[in-house]
Amino acid sequence: IASRNPDLLRRAYQYFVELGMERQAKECLAWAMQFEGKFAEAGHLFVELSDFEHASHCFWEGECWAELQHISLHCGEIQSTVANFMCSNDADPKVIRDFSISYMRWIHQNLIEDPSNQWLSILREYVRRLLAQSNTSMFSKDEWTLFANGLEQIYEKGIGAFLVDAGHCYYFANDYPSAIKCWELAANTKIRE
Questions:
Q1: 3-state SS of 151-184?
Q2: Residue 34's pLDDT is what?
Q3: Residue pLDDT, tens place only, 6-57
């Protein structure tokens, strides 16, 4: 496992199969698949082995949100909350509000430190859902301001693409100076009509 070599792990898998050592064989196969980037398959094998820590890692890496949600009782708060959000109804404003509060708390606690591919996907989906509500009265001006503040915090973590979206949230809150500030900072002064 330490070598992270899937070929060696597949050989070990064959060896354990021949010896009738099913658990060790599955472990080797799961690790080989993880190192090959077959995260869903590896995660399912880890679940069969009741190794939920490695299963949740695989499902997170592979962005297998439904699988992660399925084992969410065995996951940490962040993984569980994200899986539930990603598998939830797009238009549910309560889900968007709750997720906003959670991710802002995680940022404040420095629990989201790097803009991994998974976090970029999660935040893109969050922003897509959030901005899809722009023509509705689901959110108050204060809530739009809260959402904008959260997206600005993401910007401060080094994910600049969401600063434009923060500007849109300020715009929906009728806070035009803050919207313009965000757009100018993001080098995007296109005003939404």
A1: HHHHHHCCCCCHHHHHHHHHHHCCCHHHHHHHHH
A2: 97
A3: 999 999 999 999 999 999 999 999 999 999 999 999 999 999 999 999 999 9
The Cα angle at residue 50 between residues 49 and 54, in degrees rounded to 5:
90
How far apart, in Å, are the Cα atoms of 182 and each of 15, 146, 159, 170, 185?
Answer: 59, 14, 13, 9, 5
Q: Which residues have CB under 8 Å from 87's CB, separation 6+?
A: 65, 66, 69
Geometric angle at alpha carbon 130, from 150 and 94, rounded to 5°: 90
Number of Cα atoms under 13 Å in the Cβ half of residue 183: 16
DSSP string for residues in 114-159: S--HHHHHHHHHHHHHHHHTTTSSSS-HHHHHHHHHHHHHHHHTT-
Residue with tokens 């969050």: 126
Which two three-digit tokens encode residue 65? 């949100």
For the chain, residues with pLDDT lower than 70 are 1, 113-115, 159-160, 188-193
- pTM equals 0.85
